[in-house]
Structure formats: C-alpha cells, structure tokens
Amino acid sequence: MSYRTLGIVGAGAWGTALAVAAARAGKSVVLWAREPDVVETIARTRVNRAFLPDIALPENISATGDLARAASCEAVLLVTPAQHTRVVARALEAHLSADTPILICAKGIEGGTGALMSEVVAETLPGRKLAVLSGPSFAAEVARFLPAALTLATDDDEIGAHFVETLSGPLLRLYRGDDMVGAQVGGAVKNVVAIACGVVMGRKLGDNARAALITRGLHEMTRLARAKGGKAETLMGLSGLGDLVLTCTGEQSRNLSFGLALGRGGRAGDLLTSRRSVVEGASTAASVAALATSLGIEMPICRAVDEVANRGADLEATIEALLARPAGGREYIRNRPNATGR
C-alpha cells in the first residue's frame, strides 16, 4: 500500500525535488511554502525559481501557503530547515490528525537543545508515527530523474513499508532501516565535515588532506551516533558514508561551497547572509560541538568548524591547532558499548 496524497512542508530545493519524485510516481502532492512569492511563482510558471530553477513541476503538484491543506493529506513530509522545524511542527499541531504519519526529511541538530529532528517532532507532535529519510541526494539530480538511493529509517514497519512504496521509483531506490538516531546523526554531521573539506580545498591543502578529513569525519559522526544510542554500522551505509562522500566531493553541495569560500578568505557572516538557501552545516556545527561536550566525546573537526563559522576564530590558527593534535590514536572504530550501555 502507498499513500495517495502527500503534504510536503517546505518548498526548498529538497522539498520540491521530493514533490517531483512523488508526483512522477502518480501521487497527488500539496507543497507548502512559507514564502508567498514562491507559492505565486509555482502557480504561475510551474517552476520553483527561487530554489529549484529549470525543473518543470508536474500538474499533480499544487503549491500553497495554507499549512492546513498540506496537513490534510494522508501523510506529511517535513522538509523545513532544521533550525525552523520546531516552529513549523508547532504550527502543524493544530491541523494534523493524530494518526497522520510523518516522514522527517530535514537534516540537522537543533541549536540550544542538541535535539535530533525526531526528538523535536516527538516533543511538539507527540504520539505521531515517525520515519526519517536520509542519504546522498542532491535535489537537482533527483528532480531530473537521475539514479539515487536513500535510507528510510523507522521503528514502525507498517509506515516504513508504506513510505518506501510511495516514494520508490525506477531510479529512486529506498533501503529500509530501524536506526533513526544513526541516520539522523549521519545526515547532520556530514554537512559540518563538508564545510571543513571546502576549507581544505580553498586553502589548497591537497587531496591527501581532504581524504584524511573525510575519514576522520566519519569517525566523529560514528562517535556521536553511538553516544546517542545509534549503531556504528548505520554510519557505514547510505545515510553515513554515502552522504558524507557526496557532500564532501560534489560541486552542488552548499556546505562544501561555503567552506571553499571560507578557505579563500571569505568572512563567515557575510557568506551566510548573502545566500537564500540555508547552509545547514554552519548552525549544526554549533549544535554538534555543544552536544559533544555534554556527552563527553571528542569531535575536533566539528568543533573547529564551529569556531571558524560561528565564533570568529582565525582560520590559519584553527588549522594549525588541528594539525598539532597528538598523533597515535587508534584509527579503527572499536566495537565497544556506547554511552547508553548498548
């Protein structure tokens, strides 16, 4: 069984691409946008010029600024920027049926609370059936009907099967998993590591350095996932290693391009305010650094990105401090109990 009608809350590039994928699979889609100009442009031109230009939207996608219309569908995809998810979820509460399943497609960790998106939604929309969608997915490629594979994680087999059938197509393959924590940590931390990779490229530190950074970044995200109760093996899959490689090497990555501009001498504040699309890794870096401190784990790459992107730290001094860290730590990920005792 698949859901015939989908409400997609968030009309950025990824929300719009998911709307296109669902519409091509024959579903009726209501796409909610916060910005009135986005709603008007889609209705008039059938293109989301602000966030996904050059992609014609199928007729079975209708754009709206009315959250109640999106909430009235059989299932809802939550694709808002991570730092706005709580506000939007609270607004949804008045309109959303208690039995409407929610697929969380936002990637990030909430500032101030250190909460994963599933934790935010569970607090604001208690009792709902939840799933998480994560993995290597540039929005423009999904919208152009190019091959992609993603992880759909949930502890509810029924809605997991329904969402897989709803969104899967000839070139969009979804793999089921039950580790919602690991899938979310991978999707959030990879954006932070991508900023660091962009800095390496901008400073022309070489491919060796970038490869080492990706590998050590994978260790950091695995540490965090395990400390939060997730599984190390999840980070070896699409929502961990797969998404990390894409975001740290693909030219379409907003986080990579932000890091590249930092590495070339740009000022973080100026770079962030000049972009309409959200650079999730910048805000997530602060959340990850604080969460790592509270959990007692080391995440030096993420902490360095936070210092540079959010706290005005000198880039050269930060790079030197990273390189000066003591050598000789174990390279492999040991199979040992995590912070929750599992």
The largest sheet has its strands arranged as: 3-2-1-4-5-6-7-8
Q: Indicate the CATH architecture of the largest domain.
A: 3-Layer(aba) Sandwich
Count every beta strand, where a strand is a DSSP E run of 2 or more residues: 8
| Helix fraction bin | 40-55%
The low-confidence runs, each spanning 5 or more residues with pLDDT under 50, are 335-342
Mean pLDDT: 94
H/I helix tally = 15
Number of domains: 2
Q: Report the top-level CATH class of the largest domain.
A: Alpha Beta
Approximate strand percentage: 5-15%
Mind describing the biggest β-sheet? 8 strands, mixed
Amino-to-carboxy terminus distance:
34 Å
Listing every helix as H and every strand as E from the N terminus to the C terminus, the arrangement reads EHEHEHEHEHEHEHEHHHHHHHH
Oligomer: single chain
Structural class: alpha/beta
What fold name stands as the CATH topology of the largest domain? Rossmann fold
Offer a quick outline of the entry.
The chain is of the alpha/beta class.
Which characteristics define this entry?
single chain; 342 residues; Rossmann fold; N-(1-d-carboxylethyl)-l-norvaline Dehydrogenase, domain 2; 8-stranded mixed sheet
Your description of this structure?
By secondary structure, the chain is of the alpha/beta class. The chain has two domains: 5-178, Rossmann fold (3-Layer(aba) Sandwich); 188-323, Orthogonal Bundle (N-(1-d-carboxylethyl)-l-norvaline Dehydrogenase, domain 2). The chain has helices at residues 13-24, 36-45, 67-71, 85-93, 117-124, 139-143, 157-167, 180-202, 207-227, 238-249, 254-263, 268-273, 280-295, 300-310, 315-323; strands spanning 5-9, 28-32, 61-64, 75-78, 102-104, 130-134, 148-153, 172-177. It has an eight-stranded mixed beta sheet, with helices on both faces. Helix 8 packs parallel to helix 10 (238-249) and helix 9 packs antiparallel against helix 10. The longest helix is centred in the middle third of the chain and has 23 residues, at 180-202. The radius of gyration is 19 Å and the shape is globular. The protein starts with a strand and ends in a 19-residue tail after the last helix.
